Every structure is written in structure tokens, then in C-alpha cells.
Prior knowledge:
Distance between the termini: 9 Å
Radius of gyration: 23 Å
Number of strands: 0
Strand content: under 5%
Number of domains: 1
Structural class: mainly alpha
Order of helices and strands: HHHHHHHHHHHHHHHHHHHHHH
Number of helices: 22
Oligomer: single chain
Amino acid sequence: xxxxxxxLGQTMIYGxxxxxxxxxxxxxxxxxxxxxxxxxxxxxxKMFSYVSIINPILAFGMETxxxxxxxxxxxxxxxxxxxxxxxxxxxxxLFLITALIFSDYLARYTLxxxxxxxxxxxxxxxxxxxxxxxxxxxxxxxxxxxxxxKPFKYSLIKFLNIGTFVGxxxxxxxxxxxxxxxxxxxxxxxxxxKGRWVGYVFVANLIASIVTLLMLIPQFxxxxxxxxxxxxNNMLGYSWPVLVANLSFIINENLDKILLGxxxxxxxxxxxxxxxxxxCKLAIFISIFNTAFRLGAEPFFFSHxxxxxxxxxxxxxxxxxxxxxxILFVGLTANIEIIKYFINSRYWVGLNAVPFLLFGYVxxxxxxxxxxxYRLSDQTRYGLYISLVGAxxxxxxxxxxxxxxxxxxxxxxxxxxxxxxMVISYVLGQKHYPIPYKLKAMSIYILVSIVMVYLSxxxxxxxxxxxxxxxxxxxxxxxxxxxxxxxxxxKK
Length: 492
């Protein structure tokens, strides 16, 4: 079987589950933006931004380390599994205890001065402390499913997670108010139910995380509570740069929402954070594609590393990955006048940020692919350096631009941060672990897609017919240039 077909097959399985899971979650975006005002949605956005920054700290880079050491020490797989899980479990337990003890302080800090909401914010802190703990201890059992080649079970659990989350959201937002309105068990519901309380989103998330944990019990039962100190010392040298790199990446992704709340006047802070959080959701499709690719590519890249033609395989995969990203970039921009209906019309004022966010995700996807060089060559410190550059740029430029340009400044910073780390990763990779990428051809596709997006979005003012005409021309050009290459590659 062609190595490319195998890679494509596994990536499609993970991709389908990821796409459907994220799309089901995306269904909630019009629900949230319809029910919650921008100010309330801003609270929602900031809380999930804080969570996204804490997540990689608790995971401690152990997911990537787990895959690397499974292939590096094939005779010690159980020890690798034990160590990876126990490290995360220890860190997560410390975090949970600390967060619960200091929840009052954390609530005051994350409120940005709005003391009237202190009680609610303290409840949110408690919910998220448990969500983060449960999600963290599930990381390695989830990774084991991927390492064991069980993408269908992985997908099933993901579907159950998102199904539970979406279902409970709909119950809290629509079903219970309907029952109260029609006097069906209304006495019991009104004794505890709070109308349009954003906290129910977090309750639903916690329950969904617990359901996931329960589904992973067979993987938890395979853990042996035996810790190898010598192996851990080796794993630590690989994992901590991955941890810092992942944390820096998350800072690039989410810190702007937090800084918006800190550097805008209190009267508009939550409102603008809400607008920005909503339009960021419209860039989700490229984010989904990147995530699906990573889930399939990470174990594949490690397992394929010993093959003689591995570098050429990586080069070909990136080439067609860039091609797919370019199509998505042009296609999503061409249809922005349709996609915008996934958020309430009061959020459309932020649509001008979308092309910058989309191109940022294009650069991020390419960077994720390029990062194979330092992961496979055990030079993860370079991932740390690269990500730190991006994080420092993100922090400094957001502080400079937010007071003047609000969320548009954040969108520009996000795009340039990902562009910078993409370029740095390519340059360093070619020096330390050269891979024969088709740089010229990939650059042409990216530049052409940028020109087409500019024409579609700004010159022709988001006209859906002209935009899709531009998309068709782009697709025809790609078909003419690539049909023979794709056929040859899949026959290899």
C-alpha cells in the first residue's frame, strides 16, 4: 500500500472525527452569539483563553514525548506509558488543589475589576479547575489510542464528548426555559435555574470531559504505577522544550483576547473581546484542518522516520498540505458572506479581521508541518526558541497596537507572529535537518492565494459570485498543474 495512501487514510479518519466534532461545536456559535450579548460572550472568550494557556502546562509536552519515546525505545513501551501519564497526573493534581484553594484570588484577577460578578467568577474558576484536571489526565490515554492504531475508537470517544457538550448546552439554553414556560416541572427548575447564565456552558464542558474520562477507562487500567526515574530524566530533556514551545504557541493563539480585556477601556473591553472571539470562530475551518493533519501526521512522522526516503515523503506531504491550505484560504474568503451567518449580525462589525486570521492559520499549519525537523532530530530546544520569538512578538505588539486598533491590531499581530515562526522554522530546519521542500512552487501558490483573497474581499467587496469565480479559476489552475503529480505519487 502506498505510504501516502496510508498517511492519507489515517489522517482522514482523524480528520473526519475532528471536523465533525469541531463543526458540532461550531453549531453553538450562532447559539451563543444569539443568546449572549457581546459583553457576556467576552467573558466566555476570556475564560476559554485562560484555559487554553494552562492546558499545555499541565500536559508538560508529554504527548509528543510519548510518541517519540515509543519509537525510540520499542522495548520499554510500558515504562514510557507509565512515566508519561504519572508526570501529567502529578502536575494536574497539584494544579487542581492550588486552583481550588486560591479560587477567590483567581476570580478577582480574571474579572478585570468587575467585582459585582465575583461570585459567578469564582464558580467559573471551580468548574474550569476540574475541567483542566480531567482533560489533562486523559491526554496520554488518548495518545495511546493513536499510538495503538485505533483511530475509530478515538473518533467515537471524540464524538461522544462533543455530543454530550452540545446536547447539554441546548438543554440548558433552550429545553429548560421551554419546560419552565409551559409549566412542566417548572417549580423544580425555577428553584435553581438561572436564565441566560453563561456558567451552564462550563458545566456542560465539565460533564462532557467526565464522560470522555469514563470511556477511556480501558486505557487507564493499562497504566502501571511504576515510575522509571532514569527514563524520566531522558524524557524530561525532550519534553520541557516542547512544553515551552506549546505554551508559546498557545500564547500566540489566545493571549490577545486576554490583553484586549486588560488594555482597552473597561466600558468596551468585554464587548470588543466578544466581537473578536466571535469572528475568530469564522476562521475555525482552517484550524480544524490543521488539527486533523496534526493528529494523523504526528504518529506517522515518528514511525516513518527510519525509512530511507523519509525526508522526501515529508517534503511531498508539505507540498500538498500547502496546496490544500491555499484552496481553503481562497474558498473561505470567497464565501464569507455566507459563513458570517454563523454569528449574530451584531458581531459582523469585526468581519474585516477574518482574512488576517485565516492567513495566520495558513502560516501556523505550515509551521506545524515544518516542526518535524526538530522533533525527529531530538533538537526540541529549537522549537522552544522559535516559539518564544513568536510569544514575545505577540505580547509586545499587542500591548502597542490594542489601545489604538483594538481587535484589528490583535488580528494583524496574530498573522505576523505565525508568519515569523514559520519562516524561522524553515530557515533553521534547512540548516540542521535539511528536507528537500519545493519552496518555489509552494511560495507561488501562497502568493497567488493572497492576491485572490485581496481581490475577493477588498477589491470586489465580498461579492459572493465574483469571489467564487475567482475560486474556480484557482482550482482550474491547480488541476492543470497538479493532476499528473498526484496520480504518480499515489501509485508509488
